[in-house]
Design goal:
The protein contains four helices and twelve strands; from the N terminus they run αβββββββββαβαββα. It is α+β, with helices and mostly antiparallel strands.
């Protein structure tokens, strides 16, 4: 009976005075995303990570700090279009083989992606993905010099195909100029780069 009375008292005290860690190492700070353009920070013992999200003309810039290497990683994107190495990378459905794709800028003349291969290699892109099922990686890369201020890109994944996609890239020049004020060229994330 004494044991049950002591247990009841301890449980009651535990509910009234909840235990809090006194060691700062065990404390966890977690701030959620606020409105766009504000900061998020998180510290949990594995290293700090700060994130900032900025939006301009439909483009989104995410700036992160890698917890392990403390390297800044930047991503500039609009829907399924990402900026990498002086080019815009268009992501298509994963099962589409884009190795023989053609694209048009602002309803201009079609251009095949194979014609841009050497320009992309000079920028540091690998020509093929590691997948044997789809070596194209379902992406089409268009250099900024080819875009030359264009606002719409149409992509046909295979010659004489029945399906094609239209991408709106309006405002990429202003968004890129804004992004380069916050990030260096080497800070941009390269999710489709298979050369490293």
């Amino acid at each position: 009976m004494v044991k049950s009375l002591m247990l009841t008292i301890l449980l009651t005290l535990g509910l009234v005075f909840p235990w809090k860690p006194h060691d700062e190492h065990h404390a966890r700070v977690d701030w959620r995303w606020k409105v766009r353009g504000e900061q998020r920070a998180k510290v949990d013992g594995s290293g700090p990570r700060a994130e900032q999200r900025t939006r301009l003309d439909g483009w989104t810039l995410d700036v992160r700090l890698d917890r392990f290497t403390y390297r800044r990683i930047c991503t500039l994107r609009r829907d399924q279009v990402y900026y990498e190495r002086h080019a815009l990378v268009f992501h298509l459905p994963w099962h589409w083989d884009t190795s023989r794709a053609a694209y048009r800028i602002d309803n201009g003349a079609p251009r095949w992606v194979t014609a841009d291969a050497m320009d992309l290699v000079r920028l540091g892109f690998a020509l093929h993905d590691d997948s044997l099922a789809n070596p194209s990686g379902s992406v089409v890369r268009v250099t900024l010099t080819r875009l030359a201020g264009g606002g719409q890109v149409d992509i046909e994944p295979k010659p004489f195909g029945s399906s094609w996609r239209r991408f709106n890239v309006n405002g990429y020049q202003a968004a890129l100029a804004m992004a380069l004020t916050k990030c260096g060229e080497d800070d941009f994330d390269r999710p489709t780069d298979m050369s490293n």
